[in-house]
Write a structure and sequence with these properties.
Elements (H helix, E strand, L loop, with lengths): L2 H10 L1 H11 L3 H17 L10 H23 L16 H9 L2 H12 L4 H8 L3 H21 L1
Helix pairs in contact: 2-3, 2-4, 2-6, 3-4, 4-7, 6-8, 7-8
């Protein structure tokens, strides 16, 4: 894949990168930092990509690692009671977003990748480096937790 093709595909992924980072990080600025670092790392390491068809999964895996690194850095800097509330996009249902934010990260990430981004279970399993059965059980537990939480409200 040429550098221009690689850059074009990265630009096309910006919406996906933002949505995935929003699942893991609360602050808009942290999300932008994670996405910027992801793009830099992907561009500098693009020769390591063995299969061009797996580019999107590969970049998302870099993003997940980078979001976790940003989160760890921020956890050392800021007390947890000072964290800002998650931002709600204008077209989103705030009740669903509030319920989603209470889910543990692995469940929330699987839901976002599967339903918001449209990835298949096998692709998510490859991105998260877990078995496909684990992804299925996380999706099932996340749906059950959301159903229970939204039913209570």
């Amino acid at each position: 894949m040429t550098k221009e093709e690689f850059e074009r595909r990265i630009v096309e992924m910006q919406g996906t990168l933002y949505r995935v980072s929003a699942t893991l990080l609360r602050s808009h600025f942290d999300r932008e930092d994670a996405i910027s670092e992801t793009v830099l790392k992907a561009l500098s390491r693009r020769e390591r990509l063995r299969d061009d068809r797996a580019m999107q999964s590969w970049v998302i895996r870099i993003l997940i690692n980078e979001c976790r690194a940003v989160y760890r850095r921020r956890a050392r800097e800021m007390p947890s009671d000072a964290l800002p509330e998650p931002e709600c996009p204008p077209d989103a249902n705030p009740d669903i977003l509030r319920a989603l934010s209470t889910l543990p990260e692995p469940l929330r990430l699987c839901l976002t990748l599967h339903y918001s981004e449209g990835y298949a279970i096998n692709e998510i399993a490859r991105m998260l480096r877990v078995p496909a059965g684990t992804v299925k059980s996380r999706l099932s537990r996340a749906r059950a937790a959301l159903r229970a939480q939204l039913h209570d409200e």
